[in-house]
Amino acid sequence: MDTKPFTSGPGESAVLVTRVADRQWHALEDDLVVGRGHAQHRPDGRLFVSVDAWHDTAFDRLAAALVAHLPAPLHTVVDEADTALTARWLRAGFTVRRREGEYAVPTDPEVTGLGAVLPPPGVTIVPAGRTDEALLRAVDRAIRDEVKASVGWWSMPAEVIPRPGGDTLVDPSKYTVAASPDRYLGLIRVAPVKRPRIGLVAVRAGERRRGLARALLAHELGRLHDCGVGTAWVEIQESNRAAAALFEGIGARQQSSNLELVR
């Protein structure tokens, strides 16, 4: 356990920052916990931090402890509407890296208009859990190479950013693909967390504008609807107008926006 005292000001009680576990810190004031700091690696290898504190002094001391003890770069995500929290992170030396809109995506085919959508001739949809892992890794690698040569990794969601150890898939069992007889042409990943989240929809560059993304969405949203799930969620970077148009075209509506900050 690491303990470090910080004096808030003349005549004020000291704020004591204590490391209580691996990548977890508490801020104590008069033996009362007035803040908590936490760090966690995302599947893509990036280190994300969070601080929940009663007041600015506790936040600043916890943020300073995170910065001092953890390797850079550090990332965090805040609701853009929470201007006070954003200001705290900016004060700690973080800068805005990207802005993402969070969209609610209906699953009902009557609403999305995807009920009659089928893949183009010669293409089949292979559900999650039934994919060939070698072919899945091949299409994933091809899409990664195309992204690297065009818009760059920084613009992509966490599922596409390079991961440690050379592995390129978050969880192979979570991917549904569009397949031709000899290779996979596109993929979609839906994470069944607290609420179904569409983490990624991607199609090989040479196969775009054939309706593959809509066919993948039709399959996955239809599956969720059949399971009684009325809404899925997706985050879209503000500069990705093509993705926004795709989802807005099936009835998705933006609910909020998040900022990713980095130091």
Tally of helical segments: 6
So, the CATH homologous superfamily of the largest domain? Answer: Gcn5-related N-acetyltransferase (GNAT)
What is the CA-atom radius of gyration, in angstroms? 22 Å
Shape category: elongated
Terminal CA distance: 25 Å
| Assigned CATH architecture of the largest domain | 3-Layer(aba) Sandwich
Stated plainly, the CATH topology of the largest domain is called Aminopeptidase
CATH class of the largest domain: Alpha Beta
Strand count:
13
Largest sheet: 9 strands, mixed
- Helix fraction? 25-40%
Q: How would you characterize the overall build of this protein?
A:
This protein has 263 residues and is of the alpha+beta class. The protein folds into two domains: 2-98, 3-Layer(aba) Sandwich (Aminopeptidase), CATH 3.40.630.30; 102-257, Gcn5-related N-acetyltransferase (GNAT) (Aminopeptidase, 3-Layer(aba) Sandwich). It contains six helices and 13 strands. The chain has a nine-stranded mixed β-sheet with strand order 1-2-3-4-5-6-13-7-12. A hairpin with a 5-residue loop joins strand 4 and strand 5.
